[in-house]
Amino acid sequence: MQLQALPVELIADILAELDLESLIIISTLSRRLRGIVSEPALNPWRRPILCALRSSENYETLKTLSVRSTVPRQNWIEILSLASPAFILYEATLPNLKSEEWEECFNRRFLPSWRRWKKDGTWKRAYMKSVFCQSYALASHLPSDRNPMYLRRIMDKLVVTFADVRILAVGTLNRPRSTFTFNPNAHMFLHPPGIGPGCLNEASERYSVSSMSAVEIEDHGVYPINNSATPAYTYVPTPETYTRPVHPLPAPSHANYPYYSPGGGDKRWLGEGEIEEEGLRWVGGLMIIAQLVGPHTHDSTGDWLPLQDLDLVAGPGRNQYASFSWMDLWAIAPWMEERITRKIQGPGLGI
To answer: What is the mean pLDDT of residues 170-187?
Structure first.
């Protein structure tokens, strides 16, 4: 069968399996191939571009991609949403995008509360200013030399990673002597009810742990406590109701968030049910912070388990933080909005 006899959709799917360099070459071989790769509805560029973004070694090909008329402009929304700040600021030849396209790039890359930076300027200006400030931010940071006697109780958890920030949860793990100190909101934030490591999409099976089939929740404001003397309402987990966030768009390491993302970057499910590591539970408040992601943030220090506890806050590239508001919490964990009925407005965020 000749190439001309194949449907254009099939040809586009075949071309999408190529690497970016090969696809650029293919786009120059004939008018038919050029027409197929230039068609925004077919867009065989998306998959090779995403593969290039996941590998910093392939950024070289992305630098001048905007000057190629065969590449639909819609692909730059993906690039500007996921590429590193240094690449955007100093290496890439940026395309001419419409105002609404720059707004979409901004919404996909940054937390909702960062929209205040736009003010009266354009969305492109707000986007570039945010990327620049993220690259050179000198924000306040958490101390990394915490008292060793508390290291077995204070725990840092990686919740989700975006292009410029990663969300950390800092709280206390302990064996509570009373239900008055147990914080089920903390567990619910880290482990959305009804889904677990085996749930990779909206049609996945329910969380296999039997204790999660019906979660008793009592609303006492900032975080509920489990007391049988107080009337409770029952929340039945429904994993089908969860959707993957787009504004902002998670990094490839958490591509399936809030579902489990394989690959080693998602460390939320290290226990079973409401039990965390070593049979401990979350007690007291849980602090949620946004840590800026730099070129050395993901470097392993060698002293702690990767992407767990002190490895998240101690070491190079881990001392810069950004603001995190209730609006940002609802964006990354919308299932928490109806659980938290009282909110304290001020520096920091805790549940």
So the answer is: 80
pLDDT tens digits for range 129-162: 888 877 665 333 333 333 333 333 567 788 999 9
Q: What distance in Å separates the CA atoms of residue 254 and residue 116, rounded to the nearest whole number? A: 26
Nearest CA to 13 among 48, 65, 52?
Answer: 48
Angle in degrees, CA 249, 82, 71, rounded to 5: 110
Strand partners, 167: 160, 290
For 251-267, letters b (16+ CB in 10 Å) and e give: bebbbebbbbbeeebbb
pLDDT at res. 145: 35
Q: What is the CA radius of gyration of the chain?
A: 23
φ/ψ of residue 283, rounded to 5: -125, 150
pTM for the model: 0.71
CB neighbours of 138 closer than 8 A, spacing ≥ 6?
A: 320
Pull the structure tokens for residue 122.
């354009």
* Assigned token pair, 166: 């990663």
- Residue 233 backbone phi and psi in degrees, to 5: -110, 150
Contact status, residue 102 vs residue 124, Cβ threshold 8 Å = yes
Contact call for residues 248 and 331 (beta carbons, < 8 A)? yes
Please tell me the predicted confidence (pLDDT) of residue 273.
56
Could you read off the pLDDT of 240-295 as tens digits, one per residue?
Answer: 578 888 899 999 888 889 988 888 888 787 665 556 666 778 888 888 888 888 77
CB atoms within 10 A of CB 222: 15
* End-to-end CA gap in the chain: 62
Tokens of 210: 């039997």
Per DSSP, the chain holds a count of helices (H) and strands (E) of: 11, 6
Check if the beta carbon of residue 101 is closer than 8 Å to that of residue 77.
Answer: yes
Residue that is written with structure tokens 């309402």 in the block: 233
At 4, the amino acid letter reads Q
**Cis peptide upstream of residue 258 (ω within 30 degrees of 0):** yes
Calpha distance 232→235 (Å, rounded): 10
CA distance 80 to 253: 17
> DSSP letter at 301?
-
